[in-house]
């Protein structure tokens, strides 16, 4: 069972989405569905949660969400560029107001000096009205410590907290 703190963040995300009448889709690589699970731990999440994509392999990222071969080749799956394409792809394929994406290296192997184990990128994409030019994608890089499960949990919690920041800022606009 998720910790009470995580459920609190998930509940707050749900409350903010419901209050705004907005919807969410998630694209996950390193978290393997954990973000979607945390979102749907909240009763009534079908009011705002559209779907989740677990796109672990590069081919899946391309086929399901339109992540470009160029971004994958030039920057690797664990990069700001791919996180941005994942978040925007989830939002656009699902037709939601928000897209949330995670990509990272949970370990214990796979790290490099430039991207050590625990490196993760969280992307948040917001759809604005057509023609406004105000749609956005924000990506943040993070570093976490711990074993594989600890890193995955930290990335999922951070993704939800980051989304909540964006939802709260949008509510003020």
Overview of this protein structure:
- There is one protein chain.
- The protein has 173 residues and is an alpha/beta fold.
- The chain has a single domain, classed as Maf protein.
- The chain is built from six helices and five strands, in the order αβαβαααβββα.
- A five-stranded mixed sheet has the order 2-1-3-4-5, sandwiched between helices.
- The longest helix is centred in the last third of the chain and has 25 residues.
- It is globular and about 40 Å long.
- The model has no long low-confidence stretch (mean pLDDT 95).
Number of strands: 5
The H-level CATH homologous superfamily, spelled out, is CinA-like
Q: What is the CATH class?
A: Alpha Beta
Helix content: 40-55%
Q: Shape from CA axes?
A: globular
Rg estimate, integer Å = 15 Å
Tell me, rounded to a whole number, the average pLDDT. Answer: 95
Number of domains: 1
Please identify the structural class as seen in this structure.
alpha/beta
Q: Could you list the spans in which at least 5 consecutive residues all have pLDDT below 50?
A: none
**Could you describe the largest sheet, including whether it forms a barrel?**
5 strands, mixed
Instruction: Please report the number of helical segments.
Output: 6
CATH topology: Maf protein
- Taken in chain order, the helices and strands follow as HEHEHHHEEEH
Strand content: 15-25%
N/C terminus separation: 35 Å
Spatial strand order of the main sheet: 2-1-3-4-5
| Overall CATH architecture | Alpha-Beta Complex
